[in-house]
Amino acid sequence: MNVVVISGSPRKNANTQIMMKFVYDYTKTKNLDVKFINLSEGKIECYRGPEEEYNEDTKNAAFDIMNADVWLIGSPIYNSFFSSALKNLFEYIDYKKTPGKIGGMAILAAGNIGFIDVQTLITQLLSYFRVIANPKAVYLTTESVNEKGVSDEAKVRLKEMVDETLAIAVKIKK
User: Fold this and answer.
1) Domain extent for 7
2) Angle CA(20)–CA(38)–CA(111) in degrees, nearest 5?
């Protein structure tokens, strides 16, 4: 099974990046082929249309997403929405190559507001790509994350999201 972990924040040293690096490291312990796409590295170009030529990092990210069986998406909440960098990334994805994939998500905010709105928006995006979304997202506040990593409680919840999303994928693929 191929898995892609996406950190959807464009900010350098983003809390979302810290959270999703934990998800990536945990998912690697499952002996799966796991790729990490970190939007804070700034290597994904702005989408300019299908006829344009893009750099290798952009092409590789799109390839990894379309070829993964499972998408684990981490998103910050910016202005009651997920990041524009995350939306930009999905402009490269061909919806004809994504039906039946499974998606899990973790959403990070400064306070306890907007989680369900952003989960709904990401679920709608996944629906467009015919990706089956794990209905149990992880909601974390920035208090759960610091430069040293994620809190113990957050680790438990993130591991559950990964395990449950992978279990859905196994059931679907049977």
Assistant:
1) 2-173
2) 50
Task: Give the three-class secondary structure for 135.
Answer: coil
Burial of 22 (0-12, 13-18, 19+ CB in 10 A): buried
Sign of CA dihedral 26, 31, 32, 37: positive
| The pairing of beta strand 149-150 with beta strand 145-146 | antiparallel
Q: What is the CATH number of the domain that holds 127?
A: 3.40.50.360
**Contact assessment for residue 33 and residue 1, using Cβ atoms and an 8 Å cutoff:** yes
Cβ neighbourhood burial of 148 (10 Å; 0-12, 13-18, 19+): exposed
pLDDT (tens place) for every residue of the chain, 174 residues total: 999 999 999 998 899 999 999 999 999 999 999 999 999 998 999 999 999 999 999 999 999 999 999 999 999 998 889 999 999 999 999 999 999 999 999 999 988 878 888 999 999 999 999 999 999 999 999 999 988 899 999 999 999 999 999 999 999 987
DSSP 55: -
| Single-letter residue type at 1 | M
Q: CB of 7 within 8 A of CB of 14?
A: yes
Selection from 12, 2, 33, 17 nearest residue 73 by Cα: 17
